[in-house]
Specification:
This protein is of the alpha/beta class and 230 residues long. The protein has nine helices and seven strands; from the N terminus they run βαβαββαβααβαβααα. It has a five-stranded parallel sheet, sandwiched between helices.
């Protein structure tokens, strides 16, 4: 049976990003013939995730599905030049890389500038409000363009009751984020503590869930892959 002609846009953090050494559910879907464009990035913020997705949607109108994987709050992406690379990026013990001219500093507070940011400038309530507004607007835009939108909450987010009520129909796993599920699962026994990306057996299971959720028609193929991890 031929697969449905689906073209999926994915945007998330390292939990989903298919361009890294560790394979994710994005790689699993690609391996069974699903057409996926991945604009995710390592350690990036929700600002990056939403902006990259919408910019790509404006560039390419051929997508049937959009999958947004929300990351943890508090992350800061910083546009860099040569001086910032030397002073900020290269001196960080973990976040010492640049993606598209941006330092995904994540939650790192090794540098004094990040320490001062979290002490004096970071505003959690405003960050969540900004994310809420963007998601509501993206959902409306996708409806007008007849594009299926799936939003996966991978980490805990402090929504207000009103925000949670408004987002309940479009954000999945709000009460039990994916990373929480992963930590409670048998898969976590295989987790490499040197990296926060979920292990491959979990990624295969998540790919199966998404195949069912999006009616991609590739579940049988993923079941065969799952057999290697049971």
């Amino acid at each position: 049976m031929s697969l449905p002609k689906s073209k999926i846009l994915v945007s998330g953090c390292g939990f989903s990003w298919g361009g890294q050494e560790r394979k994710t559910w994005v790689n699993v879907l690609k391996s069974v013939g699903i057409n996926v464009d991945d604009v995710s990035g390592p350690a990036v913020s929700n600002q990056w995730i939403i902006n990259k997705a919408f910019t790509q949607l404006l560039t390419d109108s051929s997508y049937n599905h959009v999958v947004i994987q929300l990351t943890a709050p508090g992350k800061l992406d910083v546009e860099v030049d040569d001086i910032r690379v030397e002073q900020l990026v290269k001196t960080d013990s973990i976040r010492n890389f640049v993606v598209d001219g941006v330092w995904p500093s994540s939650l790192s507070s090794e540098h004094e500038s990040k320490q001062q940011y979290y002490k004096w400038l970071y505003s959690p309530r405003l960050e969540i409000e900004d994310l809420y507004v963007k998601l509501m607007m993206l959902a409306h835009w996708c409806i007008t363009k007849k594009i299926s939108l799936t939003i996966l909450q991978a980490y805990s987010l402090c929504w207000t009751d009103q925000q949670k009520q408004e987002l309940a129909s479009i954000v999945k796993f709000m009460d039990d984020p994916l990373y929480n599920q992963y930590k409670k699962s048998d898969h976590y026994k295989l987790h490499d503590v040197s990296n926060s990306v979920p292990c491959l057996s979990y990624q295969v299971d998540l790919a199966f869930q998404l195949s069912e959720m999006l009616s991609l028609g590739c579940s049988d193929k993923i079941v065969k892959i799952k057999q290697f991890y049971n």
